[in-house]
Amino acid sequence: MKKLGFPRKRFGQHFLQDNQIVQRIVAAIAPQPEQHLVEIGPGKGALTLPLLQQGAVLDVIELDRELIEWLKQKANIFKELSIHQADVLKFDFKQLVRKGQRLRVVGNLPYNISTPLLFYLLNYANDIQDMIFMLQKEVVDRLIAAPATSDYGRLSVMLQYHCRIEKIFDVNPNAFYPPPKVDSSVVQLIPYSTPPVEVMNQKHFAQVVALAFSQRRKTLRNTLKRLFDIEDIQAVGINPKARAETLTLNEFAQLANVVTLREAM
């Protein structure tokens, strides 16, 4: 029988063990008694227990049944804790929303699902107050990247449209057991009540962004030819020979709105 709480490679588990880093993350979250927190991937409770000790009302979502048993043993004195054994990429966050109260979602995210999970959480942006995550530093660099930089891509555009993003601090691999082969960063994402640019149809926006970055080294005239003629791209003041990585958030919005207006005609 495998020892409870031992990290599993197939789940991408790296357990946070540096107490100073834990305290910095808890301080960044700064839970208040009236707030409803949701922790993704609690692992061995490095964040879970300090948050509960500060009086947080906390739901945790964990896939690993053995870790759930570990948490039940360690946190059974806290009535404010609810544990959900589930695949977070299929979890319905709306079931946790209480009337008039949005969720605060936190966690040391498994690196092997972090990017799809960020996109998945955008489906619940209206129900989320903020998100504070530990992520691979490379992913955070992409989240905050500016146009015309090597880190700027689909993830940058889509998350910057939906959220205000701020990197809080970096974390050395030695803060984990086992240590990952990469550095990590803690980041806060706050969903906008009103996005920074006007998009008439979010599905069209997502489609344009995905197509534009589908072949990163090719120009817009090639990647977007399913949607636009060269003249269409020029009409909104964008060079068809430009690459997706040079476009601003507003320029992507302009292209998406062309698709929306054309379909409405």
TrEMBL record:
UniProt family annotation: Belongs to the class I-like SAM-binding methyltransferase superfamily. rRNA adenine N(6)-methyltransferase family. RsmA subfamily.
First-level EC class: transferase
Name under which the protein is recorded: Ribosomal RNA small subunit methyltransferase A
Residues given in the record as S-adenosyl-L-methionine binding sites: H14, L16, G41, E62, D87, N108
InterPro entries xrefs: KsgA/Erm (IPR001737), rRNA_Ade_diMease-like_C (IPR023165), rRNA_Ade_Mease_Trfase_CS (IPR020596), rRNA_Ade_methylase_Trfase_N (IPR020598), rRNA_adenine_dimethylase (IPR011530), SAM-dependent_MTases_sf (IPR029063)
EC number per UniProt: 2.1.1.182
SMART domains linked to this entry: rADc
Source organism superkingdom: Bacteria
Molecular function terms, GO-annotated: 16S rRNA (adenine(1518)-N(6)/adenine(1519)-N(6))-dimethyltransferase activity
Subcellular location: Cytoplasm
Its job: Specifically dimethylates two adjacent adenosines (A1518 and A1519) in the loop of a conserved hairpin near the 3'-end of 16S rRNA in the 30S particle. May play a critical role in biogenesis of 30S subunits.
All copies of domain Ribosomal RNA adenine methylase transferase N-terminal, residue ranges: 21-193
The reaction(s) this protein catalyses: adenosine(1518)/adenosine(1519) in 16S rRNA + 4 S-adenosyl-L-methionine = N(6)-dimethyladenosine(1518)/N(6)-dimethyladenosine(1519) in 16S rRNA + 4 S-adenosyl-L-homocysteine + 4 H(+)
Keywords associated with the record: Cytoplasm, Methyltransferase, RNA-binding, rRNA processing, S-adenosyl-L-methionine, Transferase
